[in-house]
Design a protein that fits this description.
Layout (H helix, E strand, L loop, with lengths): L5 H7 L17 E4 L4 E6 L5 E4 L15 H10 L48
Antiparallel strand pairs: 1-2, 2-3
The chain binds zinc ion (2 copies).
One zinc ion binds next to α1.
Amino acid sequence: MRHCCTAMTRHLAHECQAHPDPYDCPDALAGFSAKFAEYGLIIHDGSRASSTIAYCPWCGARLPASQRDRWFDELERAGIDPWRDKVPPEFEDGRWMQGVSGDGWRRCGRLAVEWERLPSRPTSA
Ligand SMILES: [Zn+2]
Ligand SMILES: [Zn+2]
């Protein structure tokens, strides 16, 4: 999927040899959760915290609304309790939105950095 500007795209694509986990890297500023269609700024306080943002800090564009609430609604509709049951793989990334009517997230693609998966990505170092 396309992001609002090249700065955002570059920050989301940030990869660091020294820090495979972006939460450990002081240069990693932004993250995108494909699962929730949510943009966030990484808070480097030693925990795995991030702050959801509604506007791009670089170009000022309004970012698409987080689909976090809808994620829980859709799981509930499917009879799945995310705290107790196994979450289907299509709910682990943006695929679940393709079956959900509504805004542009229907077109959600695979190009975005999938935030949740970054920590487990093997390093080439
Ligand atoms: Zn780093
Ligand atoms: Zn931007």
